[in-house]
Automatic annotation (TrEMBL):
One of its GO terms (biological process) is carbohydrate metabolic process. It holds the Pfam family Gal_mutarotas_2. PANTHER family: ALPHA-GLUCOSIDASE, NEUTRAL ALPHA-GLUCOSIDASE C. Gene3D superfamilies: Glycosidases, glycosyl hydrolase (family 31), Golgi alpha-mannosidase II. It comes from Periophthalmus magnuspinnatus. This is Uncharacterized protein.
Length: 676
C-alpha cells in the first residue's frame, strides 16, 4: 500500500506531519473540532535530489530535510537538527483489508469480545535532540517529569478509575497526547492528534553523536514512540524555542484557556449528595455562620427524579427555582450534574425525543447501544453535531424546567463510564454517526459532551455570560472549559500526587483544574487543612466527597480547622489564576507567586528551593535571596508562598462572603523590588 506524506509548516512556528493511505480502501478517522487555527506558511524548496528534498519556510531559520531511504525527516533550526521523525524506523501503518473480504478480526478481554473488520493501527517514533526532560501526557497519577518507560508505556485511554493507583503510567479520566521537552537552551513540543487508544514509550539517552552539520559534538536526546489503535498519523512539532512560545503555539492550535466567570475562581462545596433543599440551605448558612466565603454549592445525581437528567426529585427538591433564588440573593450559584447516559424510559419525553431523532450510539448490530450507568441507559452520540445541538437546547430555561440563569453544570461519567462494559467503558465496536467505530474517537467522547454543554449555557444567556462547565473526561482543547482530578482518596499520598497531576495538566494547556479533600475515605483534620491550603493555590478550588464518607463541611472538624480553612480561602480570591511555568513536583508558580504546599503529616519545617531572584514571604514580607534552598518553620495555619522580586501583586483589602463581594472592596498593590 502506498502512503501519502503531507508536510505543512505553519506561521506559528509549528510543523505538521500527516501520513495516510494514498488510495484508501476505507476512510480512516481524522480528529475534528480540536484544531482551532493553523495558518500555513509559504514553503520553499531549497534543494532536491532523487533521494531527498530540503524545504524552508518563514525567514529561513527553520528547514525540513526529507530522506527517502531510509525514510526519515529532520527538522533543523539554524542548521542544527532539533528533531527527527522516524529515526529508528518504527513507522507503522497497518494496512486496511479489502472491505469485501470475509476476514473478521476478534480480540477477547475477560468475558468481552471485540470484533473489527480491519486492522488499522498506526505508529511512529520521534527523536528530540538535546533533551533529557519531558513533561505532559496527562492524565496519570505520576510525577511531573515523564518516566523512562522500560517497563510499561504511558497509556492514553479515558476510563472511569475509582481510587486509582498512584505512581503509574495507567491512563485515567482524560487524555492529552502532548509532550513538552525542555532544556536550558531550548523547548520543543510534540502533539500526536489521535483519539483512539494510544501508548507512548519514552526513552532517555545520555549522549549521541551529532552528524556534522556545522561541527561534531555530543548531547542527550529523548526518543518518543507513539502507537495508536486506529486513525492516521497526524503529528505536530512545536518549535518553541522557549516554554512561553510552546504554550502560545499549542494554544493557537487547540484553543486558549477560557476566562472563567468570576464566581468559578472562588470556593466550591460539593458532595454526593446533599439530601434535600433544607440540607443545601443548612450548609449554605453554615458557611455564613463560620465566616467562610464560598461561591458555589453542588448537587450530584440524587437531586434528579429517578436519575433522569434535566429533572428534579419532586420530594426532596420540590422548589428548585426558589432554592436557586435563595442562593442568588447571596450572590452564590448552584451546580447540578448531567451525565452522557439517558435513562432507558420509553415514557420519558426526553428519552423518546432522543430515540426518535437518532441521537444514541448504536451497537455493532445496528441496534441502540444499552449499558449500565446507574439505571439501564442509552448513550448520546456527541460526535454527531446534530446531537450536540439538540443537547445544547436541553439547557434552555424553557426545556430545563426548574433551572435559572444562576444554575451551572458538571459533566461526570463521560469517559464514557459503562459499568457492564469492557474496562467499565463503551465497547470499541459500538457505532457512532458516520459509521465510525467507538475505537476511533473514544478519547473525544467527554470533550464533545462538554463542548455541547458549554454551548447550551452560552446560548441560554444569549451569549452574554461566560459558561461554567466542569468535566471529568477531557482531550486536547478541553482547556476551553474546566476539569477535576477524579475519584481520589483522602490520604497524604493522594494529596502529594495531586500537585504533579495538576502541573502536568497545566503543561498541556489545561490550567483550570484541581479538587480538594479526597473523594473517598475520611481525612483527619491535619490532612484536610493541608489539602485546603494546597487547593487554595490551584485554579479550581472545590471540596468534594462521596456519600459513604463523613460530612466534609470545614466547621465539623473543630474551630482550629475552621480557622485554618477560613484563612486559606483569601489567597486564591486575591491572586491571579494562571500557571507561569513548572519547577518541581512540590513547588509551582501562580503568576508571580511561588507556592510550596505541605503534603506530609506532622511537618514543622519545610525546605523551599527559591529561584535566582529575590523572593518575598507574602505573610511576613521578609525578603529571601534567591538561587538557594531555605528551611522555614511552618504551623497548621501557614503555607510557604513567596512573591517574586520585580513584580506587582494586586490584593483585596477586606473580606466578603463570596467572590462578587471582592469587586466592591478597595485594592492595594504590593510592589516587590528586585536588585535592579
Amino acid at each position: 500500500t502506498k502512503l501519502l506524506l503531507i508536510l505543512s509548516p505553519c506561521k506559528n512556528d509549528t510543523i505538521r506531519i500527516l501520513i495516510d493511505e494514498l488510495v484508501p480502501i476505507k476512510a480512516r478517522y481524522r480528529v475534528k473540532d480540536v484544531i482551532t487555527a493553523e495558518p500555513q506558511s509559504e514553503v520553499r524548496v531549497e534543494k532536491q535530489t532523487k533521494d531527498s528534498v530540503i524545504l524552508s519556510w518563514s525567514t529561513g531559520r527553520y528547514q525540513a530535510r526529507i530522506w527517502c531511504f531510509p525514510f526519515h525527516i529532520e527538522i533543523l533550526c539554524e542548521d542544527e537538527v532539533i528533531a527527527t521523525f522516524n529515526p529508528k524506523n518504527k513507522l507503522w501503518f497497518e494496512t486496511l483489508q479489502d472491505e469485501d473480504g470475509n476476514a473478521l478480526w476478534k480480540e477477547t478481554f475477560r468475558q468481552f469480545v471485540d470484533y473489527k473488520t480491519n486492522p488499522s493501527s498506526v505508529g511512529a517514533d520521534l527523536r528530540l535532540h538535546g533533551f533529557s526532560h519531558v513533561f505532559g501526557l496527562p492524565e496519570h497519577a505520576d510525577r511531573l517529569q515523564l518516566r523512562d518507560t522500560d517497563d510499561e508505556p504511558y497509556r492514553l485511554y479515558n476510563l472511569d478509575v475509582f481510587a486509582y493507583a498512584l505512581n503509574s503510567p495507567f491512563g485515567l479520566y482524560g487524555s492529552v497526547p502532548f509532550v513538552l521537552a525542555h532544556s536550558s537552551n531550548r523547548t520543543l513540543g510534540a502533539f500526536w492528534l489521535n483519539a483512539s487508544e494510544t501508548f507512548v514509550n519514552i526513552h532517555y539517552s545520555i549522549d549521541e553523536s551529532i552528524p556534522p552539520v556545522k561541527k561534531r559534538r555530543t548531547q542527550p536526546h529523548t526518543d518518543l514512540h507513539w502507537l495508536s489503535e486506529s486513525g492516521v498519523i497526524d503529528c505536530r512539532i512545536l518549535l518553541g524555542p522557549q516554554p512561553k512560545h510552546i504554550f502560545s503555539q499549542y494554544a493557537q492550535l487547540t484553543g486558549y484557556q477560557s476566562l472563567p466567570p468570576l464566581f468559578a475562581l472562588g470556593y466550591h462545596q460539593c458532595r454526593w449528595n446533599y439530601d434535600d433543599e433544607a440540607d443545601v440551605k443548612y450548609v449554605d448558612a453554615g458557611f455564613d455562620l463560620h465566616n467562610i466565603p464560598y461561591d458555589v454549592i453542588w448537587l450530584d445525581i440524587e437531586h434528579t427524579d429517578g436519575k433522569r437528567y434535566f429533572t428534579w426529585d419532586p420530594v426532596h427538591f420540590p422548589k428548585p427555582i426558589e432554592l436557586q433564588r435563595h442562593l442568588q440573593r447571596k450572590k452564590r450559584k448552584l451546580v447540578v450534574i448531567s451525565d452522557p447516559h439517558i435513562k432507558l424510559d420509553p415514557d420519558w419525553p426526553l428519552f423518546h425525543e432522543a430515540l426518535g431523532s437518532g441521537h444514541f450510539v448504536k451497537d455493532r448490530g445496528g441496534q441502540i447501544f444499552k449499558g449500565s450507568c446507574w439505571p439501564e441507559s442509552c448513550y448520546l452520540d456527541f460526535s454527531n453535531p446534530a446531537t450536540r445541538a439538540w443537547y445544547s437546547r436541553c439547557f434552555s430555561l424553557n426545556n430545563f424546567q426548574g433551572s435559572t440563569s444562576s444554575l451551572f453544570v458538571w459533566n461526570d461519567m463521560n469517559e464514557p463510564s459503562v459499568f457492564d462494559g469492557p474496562e467499565q467503558t463503551m465497547p470499541k465496536d459500538a457505532v457512532h454517526s458516520g459509521g465510525w467505530e467507538h475505537r476511533d474517537l473514544h478519547n473525544l467522547y467527554g470533550f464533545y459532551q462538554q463542548m455541547a454543554t458549554a454551548e447550551g449555557l452560552l446560548t441560554r444567556s444569549g451569549g452574554q455570560h461566560r459558561p461554567f462547565v466542569l468535566s471529568r473526561s477531557f482531550f486536547a482543547g478541553s482547556q476551553r472549559f474546566a476539569i477535576w482530578t477524579g475519584d481520589n482518596v483522602a490520604t497524604w499520598d493522594y494529596l502529594k500526587i495531586s500537585i504533579p497531576m495538576v502541573l502536568s495538566l497545566s503543561v498541556a494547556g489545561i490550567t483550570f483544574c484541581g479538587d480538594v479533600g479526597g473523594f473517598v475515605q475520611d481525612p483527619d483534620p491535619e490532612l484536610l487543612v493541608r489539602w485546603y491550603q494546597a487547593g487554595a493555590l490551584t485554579p479550581f478550588f472545590r471540596g468534594h466527597s462521596a456519600k459513604e464518607t463523613n460530612r466534609r463541611e470545614p466547621w465539623l472538624f473543630g474551630e482550629e480547622v475552621t480557622a485554618a480553612v477560613r484563612n486559606t480561602i483569601p489567597l486564591w480570591v486575591e491572586f491571579p489564576a494562571e500557571e507561569d511555568t513548572f519547577t518541581m513536583d512540590n513547588e509551582y508558580m501562580i503568576g508571580a507567586l511561588l507556592a510550596c504546599p505541605i503534603t506530609d503529616p506532622g511537618v514543622q519545617q519545610v525546605q523551599v528551593l527559591l529561584p535566582s531572584s529575590e523572593e518575598y514571604d507574602v505573610q511576613s514580607l521578609k525578603v529571601h535571596k534567591g538561587g538557594r534552598t531555605v528551611i522555614l518553620p511552618v504551623t497548621m495555619d501557614t503555607v510557604p508562598v513567596f512573591q517574586r522580586g520585580g513584580t506587582i501583586i494586586c490584593r483585596s483589602t477586606g473580606s466578603g462572603s463570596c467572590s462578587e463581594d471582592f469587586q466592591k472592596l478597595p485594592l492595594s498593590l504590593t510592589v516587590a523590588l528586585n536588585s535592579q
